[in-house]
TrEMBL record:
Domain ABC transporter: 12-251
SUPFAM superfamilies from the UniProt entry: P-loop containing nucleoside triphosphate hydrolases (SSF52540)
Alphabetical list of PANTHER family matching this protein: BACITRACIN EXPORT ATP-BINDING PROTEIN BCEA (PTHR24220:SF674), IMPORT ATP-BINDING PROTEIN (PTHR24220)
Gene3D superfamilies found in the cross-reference section: P-loop containing nucleotide triphosphate hydrolases
GO cellular component, one term: membrane protein complex
Record-given protein name: ABC transporter ATP-binding protein
Amino acid sequence: MGGTIIMKQKILQVQGLRKHFGKHGSMTKALDGMTFDVLEGEFLGIMGKSGCGKTTLLNCIATALKPTEGKILLNGEDIGGFDDRRLAEYRGSRIGYLYQDFELLDNLTGRENITLPLAIHGKEEGIEADRLPELVDYLEIREVLDKFPSQMSGGEKQRVAAARALIPDPGIVIADEPTGALDTENARALMQKLNGLNREFGRTILMVTHDAGAASYCSRILFMKDGYIFHELRREFPQESQKDYYERILAAMAQLGGSADVF
Ligand SMILES: Nc1ncnc2c1ncn2[C@@H]1O[C@H](COP(=O)(O)OP(=O)(O)OP(=O)(O)O)[C@@H](O)[C@H]1O
């Protein structure tokens, strides 16, 4: 008798996505036919050289840009068809966003920054009360809840930003170079937290990164070039160690991009 096959749900589906800037003579094909799914519970990485279209892709997913062609579906629903109310809900609570430079508001405390999405989107106090202590404990940010961003370290700021991304309980967290402004030690600490949120708490994460170390926490990595996916790596669980996976990522970067540090 065969084992049970568990079909994971597709949280995000990117289908034939194209984004062209400019007109015929001087057109840039920033996205040139991207198709991929992010499965429930997956930690998906996206890597690629500067200018390959990563930011354009995330901007389309965040609905800051309208694709020239193609669709993005969240839990099977085409986000291109959302009216204003559903778009606000999508941006505010169905996706969580983690930025490279934290994007905390300087005049709000850690606690106020974290709960801002709930205040903006009119969520009940109870939801916050339930989830906040667990996030605060897990992300080790209790000490900074009453501090302002200027009084926090980079690592603390990014963990506060992670709590803000997660407090509305989004279906997927989009992380755009989340370790880009952190030193090596803080980058590793953040990645361990994101890894735990994925493995222990089942959070689905889509992360763009230039950093092979950060990428080595991903269960799967898509490599982009000129607006399309041209390579994919998957960590072989459980037999492949993170170190061996890291070596494979470096090899792929070197092979595909010429040298690992150009990503
Ligand atoms: N608003 C725009 N108008 C015209 N061209 C654009 C615009 N935004 C991006 N591009 C072009 O689209 C391509 C992809 O840009 P994008 O910012 O998505 O790349 P990226 O992979 O995020 O780069 P980086 O890693 O440097 O942030 C580039 O050639 C860029 O010059």
